[in-house]
Amino acid sequence: MASTVAIIAGAIIAIIYVSLRFLLYCTQDAREPPAIETDQYRLPIYTLRLPFQRIYVVNSTGLIPELQKQWRSVSFAAIAAAAGSVVGMSKDALRIMHQDLTSEHGFSVSWPHFIAPSMAPGKELDAITRRSVEVLSAEMESMRTQGGPVRTGLWAWSRQIMEAATTEAVWGPQNPYRDAGIAKAWRHASSSPPPCSNTCGTVATKLPREWSASVMSITMAYLVWVRTTLRAGELGNAFAVLSNTAPCAWWVLYHIFSDAQLLDEIRHELSAAVYEDENHVWHVDMARLLAACPLLLGTFQETMRYHAVNPGPRVILKDVVLNDGTLLKKGSILMIPTTVQHTDTTAWGDDADQFDHLRFSRTAGANGRKKPNRIAFRPFGGGQFLCPGRHFASNEILAVTALAVLQFEVVPVGGKWVEPTVENSPPQSAFPLPDEDIQVEFRPRDPKKAWDVTFSGVDQPMGIVSEDAVADS
Ligand code: HEM
Ligand SMILES: *[C@@H]1O[C@H](CO)[C@@H](O)[C@H](O)[C@H]1NC(C)=O
User: Fold this and answer.
1) Which protein family is named in the record (predicted)?
2) Which residues are registered as beta bridge partners of 334?
3) Which side of the chain, N or C, has fewer Cβ within a 10 Å radius?
4) pLDDT of residue 140
């Protein structure tokens, strides 16, 4: 009896499976990117079929310029707009968010362009950067004057100082994060794993490598969508403004302090941009310093290349036909995962899987090395949908690193530096968070030294991403 049931159940499952496969086969247009189960590899773009949803994963840098030109149909704004309903925004608000999604006049498309000018090089960016540098410098001063080494977790410290500096700079005197309760709520939201991540993680480890990256990317795409949603409310602002800066700063600090030679070289470079006056006060103009330290800048860029994990989600709003005839169907999701772009050997060379702090600062093409393809460098997104906070974020991360390197020795309590695992990093984080913090001691290099840290101003972007590069490529 039991076996009859099993056979019938088996038969039903088999029939369902075959018909689903047939359905997938029938609904997959021959002109669409190949579905991944065809097992054809080295594809520039491929389709992942999920129930009721197709996801195109971009696997070639070559397709990016073409896709970015099609920004009306390959849309990031649509993700933000779709998200509005989840947070229970009013009908009117939703109507406005969905209006004119394919034109630069639509709300969801245009709002980032209203905030971008105030975050681009100029007086307003200088003002928030100056405030941030003030806070960073004051925090370090209070640590230097405690009369001895300060023990802390490197991640805990990075997060605390970056959140203090960023929120003071962006929110100003009304900064709501001065309230310990609000600050704590934010921490909880940004570092707790969402309920699905365990399951998704388990599924991902069981799939072939090529697939696990994609499955993780889907989880991430979903979470980015949630996070874009939240951006509609205050927690949403916090995600856009805060969620990437601290984890990124932590990785930069980790790479520099854990490598004695790199630390030495960067300290040397920084020291040349600092001067002592007749009263033995040491002066740093952070704006001039940042412009004079290519090694530090390159290490920051390489850290973002090596660790960024944002999935670059887009929605296809209208059928799109690519130059080679490939069809992208309306209603699908498209992803340009940084993890794929940042490890592409055709863009970065055979050592793409290695951390090389000189990759960006070395003269392009020197020592017979491949000149990196900057279109494949996407920590801040790209094209029409490029992070408007990138100049500010870069200023802050470079400033905290420069001050820490100039003023402290950072020594692991365990005796040596070990790169932490990141298996339990919450998928909403654009840079992986360490499973366990590294306990360190901050030892002031010269407690008696007095520092005067300022930020005069900058009128040119640093050229970190290709969109901002002047005569770079
Ligand atoms: C290292 C730090 C940061 C990184 C890596 C980062 C990265 C990104 C990425 C990848 C996107 C989405 C674009 C895409 O998917 O192509 C984005 C969007 C955005 N970021 Fe950042 N970001 C950082 C810091 C900041 C800061 C400090 C602010 C504000 C002060 C900010 C404000 C925004 C806003 C408002 C958007 C939405 C733009 C839109 O909807 O078009 N970001 N960021
Ligand atoms: C993605 O591109 C890489 C590098 O060309 C290739 O090895 C891999 O097979 C491609 N993935 C798919 C699914 O085609």
Assistant:
1) Belongs to the cytochrome P450 family.
2) 56, 314
3) N
4) 95
CA distance 223 to 230: 10
Q: Is 452 helix (H, G, I), strand (E, B) or coil?
A: strand
Best residue among 60, 210, 214 to mutate for probing ligand 2's pocket (most ligand atoms within 8 Å of CB) is: 210
CA distances from 380 to 91, 281, 464 (A): 31, 37, 10
Q: At 274, phi and psi to the nearest 5?
A: -120, 140
Residue 201 has pLDDT above 60, yes or no: no
What pairing do the DSSP bridges indicate for beta strands 281-285 and 450-454?
parallel
How many angstroms separate the alpha carbon of residue 32 from the centre of ligand 2?
17
Ligand in closest contact with the CA of 340: 2
Point out the ligand nearest to the CA of residue 57.
Answer: 2
Answer for the pair 413, 157: CB distance below 8 angstroms, yes or no: no
Q: Report the side by side order of strands in the sheet with 74-75.
A: 45-50, 53-58, 333-335, 313-316, 74-75
What six digits make up the tokens of 219?
A: 């989880």
Distance CA 326, CA 337 (A): 19
- The structural domains of the chain, with segments of one domain joined by +, span 129-313+357-454
What is the rounded CA–CA span in Å between residue 448 and residue 148? 12
CATH superfamily ID and name for 129-313+357-454: Cytochrome P450 (1.10.630.10)
Token duo for residue 423: 């298996």
Which amino acid would we find at residue 284? V
Nearest CA to ligand 1 atom 7: 380
C-alpha–C-alpha distance, residues 358 and 8, integer Å: 63
Largest CA distance in the chain: 97
pTM metric for this prediction:
0.85
Radius of gyration of the chain (CA): 24
Structure tokens at 126: 């200088």
H or E element in which residue 153 lies:
strand 150-153
What is the number of alpha carbons within 13 Å of residue 176 lying toward its C-beta? 9
Nearest to 364 by CA among 289, 472, 273: 472
The two tokens of residue 350 are 């055979």
CA distances from 408 to 102, 148, 193, 303, 444 (A): 51, 11, 33, 21, 4
Lowest mean pLDDT among 60-74, 274-288, 289-303, 369-383: 369-383
Q: What is the mean pLDDT of residues 83-96?
A: 67
**How far from 227 is each of 186, 211, 322, 356, CA to CA, in Å?**
13, 24, 30, 32
